[in-house]
């Protein structure tokens, strides 16, 4: 069975200009296939989170070409990119960024409400099903501030999944979690990759987490130095 490319980046270069011009990404190029679980590792300051920000389409100030889900997204307007992200991309960060006073269910519903494709009833049903899949449906009506850190991160994953994105990007998604919850989150991401064909791209400092994913991309000084 032929592999389908989910993400392709060609000759990606990026500069920072403060306090002086500095090349932070240098000729990055690689592909990620549909359903693949890829971890990006490297020391702090190597450029991995900067690269993820470019891959996520949230940073458009770069040189090179980026293709996502078969679309050439380089050069698209901010409105076009925002619409693309809402449909195709889900994000999980080190900090969950849940609205503390909103219920877990409402937090998960927000991206779908913003997309505006389904009815409120359908969105609520889908949000509850996502929480159920992640084992936190019992927390659905609690304010997000009243549940544990591990539960909050699972709610954040449910939120990332609500619009059924093809690609999920994680920036240190287990950075604030203990080893038990890190294992839970890894298993969830692996299940999404293997059983639902989601493409997972995570930046992590956790070498054990990375080693269990399908492929590890190692960065140093703004370049890819190894893939295994």
TrEMBL record:
Gene Ontology CC terms, in alphabetical order: membrane protein complex
Keyword hit for Transport: yes
GO molecular function: ATP binding; ATP hydrolysis activity; transmembrane transporter activity
One Pfam family it belongs to: ABC_tran
Top-level lineage group: Bacteria
Gene3D superfamilies per UniProt: P-loop containing nucleotide triphosphate hydrolases
Domain ABC transporter: 7-228
Keywords for this protein: ATP-binding, Nucleotide-binding, Translocase, Transport
Keyword Zinc applies: no
Family recorded in the similarity comment: Belongs to the ABC transporter superfamily. Macrolide exporter (TC 3.A.1.122) family.
PANTHER family: ALPHA-D-RIBOSE 1-METHYLPHOSPHONATE 5-TRIPHOSPHATE SYNTHASE SUBUNIT PHNL, LIPOPROTEIN-RELEASING SYSTEM ATP-BINDING PROTEIN LOLD
Name this protein carries in UniProt: ABC transporter ATP-binding protein
Organism encoding this protein: Arcticibacter tournemirensis
């Amino acid at each position: 069975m032929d592999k389908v490319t989910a993400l392709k980046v060609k000759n990606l270069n990026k500069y920072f200009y403060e306090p002086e011009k500095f090349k932070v990404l240098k000729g990055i190029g690689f592909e990620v296939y549909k359903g693949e679980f890829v971890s990006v590792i490297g020391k702090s300051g190597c450029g991995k989170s900067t690269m993820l920000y470019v891959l996520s389409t949230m940073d458009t100030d770069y040189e090179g070409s980026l293709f996502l889900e078969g679309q050439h997204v380089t050069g698209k307007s901010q409105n076009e990119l925002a619409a693309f992200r809402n449909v195709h991309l889900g994000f999980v960060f080190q900090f969950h960024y849940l609205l503390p006073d909103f219920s877990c269910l409402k937090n998960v519903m927000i991206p779908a409400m913003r997309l505006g494709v389904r009815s409120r009833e359908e969105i609520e049903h889908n949000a509850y099903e996502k929480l159920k899949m992640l084992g936190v449906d019992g927390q659905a009506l609690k304010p997000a501030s009243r549940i544990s850190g591990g539960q909050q991160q699972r709610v954040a994953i449910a939120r990332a999944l609500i619009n059924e994105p093809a690609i999920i990007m994680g920036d240190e998604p287990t950075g604030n979690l203990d080893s038990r919850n890190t294992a839970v989150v890894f298993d969830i991401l692996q299940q999404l990759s293997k059983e639902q064909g989601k493409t997972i791209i995570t930046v992590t400092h956790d070498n054990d987490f990375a080693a269990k994913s399908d492929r590890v991309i190692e960065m140093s000084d703004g370049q890819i130095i190894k893939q295994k």
